[in-house]
Amino acid sequence: MYSLESLSEIVDKGIMNLSIPKEPKRLYEPINYTLATGGKRIRPVLVLAACNAFSESIEKALNPALAIELFHNFTLIHDDIMDNAPIRRNNPTVFAKWNSDIAILSGDALSILAYQLLSKTDKEFLIPVLNVFNSLALGVCDGQQMDMDFETNQYVTQDEYLTMIELKTSILLKGALQIGAIIGGASQSDITQIGEFGKNLGLAFQLQDDLLDSYGDVNSFGKKIGGDILANKKTFLTIKAYSLAKGNSFELLNSYFKAENIDPQQKIEGVLKIYNEIGVKEITKTKIDEYSQNAMAALNKISIYPERKDILSCLAEKIMSRNS
Hints:
Number of strands: 2
Oligomer: single chain
Shape: globular
Distance between the termini: 28 Å
Strand content: under 5%
CATH superfamily: Farnesyl Diphosphate Synthase
Order of helices and strands: HHHHEEHHHHHHHHHHHH
Radius of gyration: 20 Å
Largest sheet: 2 strands, antiparallel
Strand order of the largest sheet: 1-2
Number of helices: 16
CATH class: Mainly Alpha
């Protein structure tokens, strides 16, 4: 069995050894810039960890793992344009450093590079792996469109929001684990259960991200605190606040999110004050715990020796204890 540290090293080395073209410079330089900023590399490590849970050999899972990481970074480049986000991983986003046109084209190229890597999957596993990859890729697009639709919807329900993050965020973790399990030779039942593990872990992951955006530390989080509030994003916290706020609190909350000319810090502090009065932080933490427990319940159903699940348990713990 590989350790979490060794799997992370394999992924980092694999990223460093990628043959990214040099020219045209303004097409590929942003790709190298994006990959060099690092990130947590959770998704490719999940591919390798899932493969290793069922097999001692993980070499055949490396290209699909790297493909997942490239595809994830492609979505981030485009997401930052749509969200008008200037900072990611404590660095300027691609569109902020260059421009939107370059970011769009570099993102497109990055998605093609991801499929080039995926096409190197062993023929024995290529079709099922491609099916999972295409499903998660389209799911991310579905989720992103829902997220954009929410911007103009006056109200969004909790169930609608959870469906959106399951598609936009959770499906990548689910797909990464299922791809690793397929290459590791897992049974269909175990592929399904490891997918459930990933789905619930992804839901908890995104809710944790929502929480950190309002209550995290800017130096650890890598993005501006309160960015979702300033962007009027309908996160789990916002949706719960709207559903629970009454009377003056509701009117005040509504005025903050509808105000066109308001000091940013005043808006963040005002919304957080209402969150704190309602107990939104605690409600979100409870929901995170619920999904974390569901994830571990699915992991326990996988029919391999308990010690082979240790690295997946370790990864889940790392994801859920993060502050960035």
